[in-house]
Amino acid sequence: MTCYFRYLQYVFERGGIKITKENKRQIDQIIHNVIGVEYKNCPAAWKEVKKQIAEDEEAFISQLRNLLTL
Questions:
Q1: Domain total for the chain?
Q2: How far apart are CA 12 and CA 34, in angstroms?
Q3: CA 32 to CA 38: how far, in whole Å?
Q4: Which residue of 23, 33, 41, 70 shows the fewest CB atoms closer than 10 Å?
Q5: Is the CA virtual torsion 56, 62, 67, 68 positive or negative?
Q6: Where in the sequence is the domain holding 48, given as residue range(s)?
Q7: pLDDT tens, 33-46?
Q8: Is 66 helix (H, G, I), strand (E, B) or coil?
Q9: What gap in Å lies between CA 6 and CA 8, rounded to an integer?
């Protein structure tokens, strides 16, 4: 779980998303939901996250922020 979070620190910072012990799992589940990858499939999730960030980083960050505020 969350094996790729260390690579996303700049994304979280740009989105104003603070990662804590308490919310890490929830954020990981949201990321999997956003990218459409089964939860806990870390290699597939990281591959898709990189792809979506390369295509439109702002949209990816916006989706995370919106889902975190629900």
A1: 1
A2: 15
A3: 6
A4: 70
A5: positive
A6: 5-68
A7: 999 999 989 999 99
A8: helix
A9: 5
